[in-house]
Amino acid sequence: MSSLDQLLTPAxxxxxxxxxxxxxxxxxxxxxxxxxxxxxxxxxQDHLAGVQRQGQTDLALLTDGLSAEREQGITxxxxxxxxxTEQRKFIIGDAPGHEQYTRNMVTAASSAxxxxxxxxxxxxxxxxxxxxxxxxxxxxxxxxxxxRVPSIVFAINKLDAxxxxxxxxxxxxxxxxxxxxxxxxxxxxxxxxxxxxxxxxVEHQPDWCGYQGPSLLDILERxxxxxxDDAQGMSFPVQWVEKFHDGAQTHEGRRVFWGRxxxxxxxxxxxxxxxxxxxxxxxxxxxxxxxxxxxxxxGHSGGVVLDREVDVSRGDWLVAAEDAPEGQRELQVTLxxxxxxxxxxxxxxxxxxxxxxxxxxxxxxxxxxxxHTLAEEDAQQLEANAIGHVTLSLQEPLLTRPFQESRVLGxxxxxxxxxxxxxxxxxxxx
Length: 430
Description:
Blueprint: H1 3-7, H2 10-13, E1 17-23, H3 29-39, H4 45-49, E2 52-53, E3 56-57, H5 67-72, E4 79-84, E5 89-94, H6 102-109, E6 114-120, H7 135-146, E7 151-157, H8 165-183, E8 187-192, H9 216-222, E9 235-242, E10 256-260, E11 266-267, E12 271-275, E13 280-288, E14 293-294, E15 296-297, E16 301-306, E17 317-320, E18 328-337, E19 343-344, E20 348-353, E21 356-369, E22 376-378, E23 381-382, E24 387-398, E25 411-416, E26 422-428
Parallel strand pairs: 1-5, 1-6, 6-7, 7-8
Antiparallel strand pairs: 2-3, 4-5, 9-10, 9-17, 10-16, 11-15, 12-13, 12-17, 13-14, 13-16, 18-24, 18-26, 19-23, 20-21, 20-25, 21-22, 21-24, 25-26
């Protein structure tokens, strides 16, 4: 270990944890983030003075930045905030709880390392040992699971506002455990919290609700970041082609292809194949985003120079020439539908995969998932915020892998051809 490494704190060396808060509307997500920011000293006093409502500090206003949100008291967009402790750095995404903004939650979860799903104890019949959960709680937990968020934590909020917090925590915990087990969701922890009072958020509140575990922040400090898809073959989606005249720093004599390594390891001397053209070449140079030369690159953005000129454009892929996967013209996907117009067979959408656009036709709606019973039901269409299995026919082949193997290769976004609005998030099935 170098002398410099010895001087660095764990927060400076550990990878930042990117997590989201989600759940039903008004469950206290924004307040929880505000509490984390305040209690970790990430908010200055003059900033706190600017988030007053009726003479009291409103922690939710620290994240509800849009004027529409402040007027309505709800979150309608994903707000990102940053803070750090002595142990690590954090990037928080406050996802909206309203059902019509589920697309925003999906966007935030697609790149998250962890999800904190808030549950409002005051909205549940907590006196019952076996009671139903709110639909949006179930939907957000399912979406986080489907989107391969590695760590899911349930935080039962507002227990300070119920008559018997110990009984409420016990019964809600049992309902959450039963739901997670039936949905196949691995839960890291179920924590009782009061975002308003700060109990069990940053500091552990002893002898409350019978809970003896760590605080929410202690749990977040120990969670792993999303593992990269290093075990898969190398794939590199080309985002930008830098030509000779694009900048004074282009001295390689050949074009530079910029993007982010989606899976595997990109190495100098590696034989690659261009998708979809099928041309082959050898990697002559690998560099970081700051043009520093590297022998290899994995999981990060960078540039590639090939040993000869080949036809490569934005949206193409560079893949390892050995055992390169074949393009697919028909896909079986799990689809989170977000458009107000129902999804029906025969409709055509734009499909965005990496940086490549192709036309996609809905061949069939196989079934949809009942978020209450988790049963797969026969269906002719998917309504807004429904989750189901769909068959897509593509105008051109795409280089895909199952989403369980690769977050990048296994994900597509469907876009309405007329309005250009995001219509759905598709995850390639095995």
